[in-house]
Amino acid sequence: MDKIMIDIETLDTRPTSVILSLGAVVFDETELGRTFHRRIDIDSCLRLNMTVSGSTIAWWMEQPDVARKLFKTQGTHITNVLDAFTRAFDWEKIKEVWANGTDFDLVILRNAFERTGIRCPWAYYKGRDYRTVRKLFPQAVLNECTVEPRIKHDAFEDATSQALTLQRLLQSPSLYDETLRLLSRRGIDLLLVVGSKNSSNSQRLVDVARQSGCAAHLIDGAGEIDPAWLAGVKTVGVTAGASAPEHLVQGVVALLTGRGGRVEEVTVREEDVHFSLPKELAGLAPTR
Question: Are the beta carbons of 41 and 19 closer than 8 angstroms?
Answer without folding.
Answer: no
